[in-house]
Design brief:
0% strand, mainly alpha, 4 helices
Length: 84
Amino acid sequence: MVRARVSSELKHESEAILSELGMSMSDAIRIFLSQVKLRHEFPVELKVPNQDTLKAMEAPVTEDVYDSTDDLFNDILGSSSAKD
């Protein structure tokens, strides 16, 4: 048996996401601990986001829609060969 203290909000939000993935909290904890055992290390890379990442995370989401990946990359890369 494993017990952990977490806020009820964190627990409920996590359970909802895990449910969408077809697993329970117990399943997720078993998978996590199995990965710790298998890898002999923490199975998730932990990083503090740098300033560029924080800026991107705070940027507004656009409503742009593209007809193809070529159109998307042309827009991102500023290519003047975009199809009209």
